[in-house]
Amino acid sequence: MEQYYYRRIYVAVMVMRFFLQFVVVMTIKQVEVRMKHNSNRTGFFVYICNLSAGIVFLMIIVYCTQPAFCEEKSQEYEPTKYGLGLIIGDTYRAAEDLNFIMVTGFAQFDYDRIWPHPAPDSLYFKVEASLGMTTSPWNRAMASANIMACYYLDFLSTDHLKPYLEGGIGLIYTDFKLEDQGLKFNFNPQVGIGTDIFIGNGQPFFLALRLHHISNAGLHEDNRGINSVTLTFGRYF
């Protein structure tokens, strides 16, 4: 038991170290961009989105390092779940006025099945891919691939609802560039809340609300971000 406890501590420290390094680099890059362009248009949302995703992820990691979860689990894993849904996204800055719609599919795995260290039963690892297009102000293609950590809040679950927190990052391609955006290939950090919805005896539905960010993390001197709120609705199969 002690061995697993210290291994969890080590994993948590490494994750926190990586996250802090990432935030420092992002902050420096954004300050450089803002000083160069003398503009307040970039930076703020990426801090909020990355910090929120990091806080959710670190809370999960710290929770996982508690001694109560350091006993070895059996090798029986939760079944892998697959889902298909529709994403509706809307930027909240009037200057962008960008809306999009995407079809998304994902596979959700028991966390222990993918990563070689113990984790609480409520933690899952999700791999998702999405394809769609903007609906205004023009029609342009979008495609993304993301990995997410998903933690179910069992203490809030009911017979019909099973809420969860999720956060992660991925890559996204947009067949357009806004002014000062720089690249068509960008990073895509997201953080959100959602719930599985159980109706009848069939497979459950799901509903999720996320903060959605697109930027190149300073890989190009022009790094205007696209900041959206997305609503996803779909069903497991």
Task: Write structural notes for this entry.
By secondary structure, this protein is an alpha+beta fold. The chain has one domain: Porin (Beta Barrel), CATH 2.40.160. Helices cover 26% and strands 40% of the residues. The protein is built from 3 helices and 9 strands, in the order H-H-E-E-H-E-E-E-E-E-E-E. It has an 8-stranded antiparallel β-barrel with strand order 1-2-3-4-5-7-8-9. Helix 1 (2-37) runs antiparallel to helix 2 (44-64). It is globular.
List the helices and strands and how they pair.
Elements (H helix, E strand, L loop, with lengths): L1 H36 L6 H21 L16 E11 L7 E12 H4 L8 E14 L4 E12 L8 E14 L10 E3 L2 E8 L7 E10 L11 E11 L1
Antiparallel strand pairs: 1-2, 1-9, 2-3, 3-4, 4-5, 5-6, 5-7, 7-8, 8-9
Helix pairs in contact: 1-2
Keywords summarizing the entry:
8-stranded antiparallel barrel, 237 residues, Porin, 3 helices, 9 strands, alpha+beta, 26% helix
The percent of residues in helical segments reads: 25-40%
Number of strands: 9
Strand coverage percent: 35-45%
| Spans where pLDDT lies below 50 across 5 or more residues | 38-42, 67-73
Can you count the helices? 3
Residue-averaged pLDDT, rounded? 80
Query: Which descriptor suits the 3D outline?
Result: globular
Biggest sheet architecture:
8 strands, antiparallel, barrel
CATH architecture: Beta Barrel
At a glance:
The protein is α+β, with helices and mostly antiparallel strands. The protein has helices spanning 2-37, 44-64, 111-114; strands at residues 81-91, 99-110, 123-136, 141-152, 161-174, 185-187, 190-197, 205-214, 226-236. It has a single domain (2-236), classed as Beta Barrel (Porin).
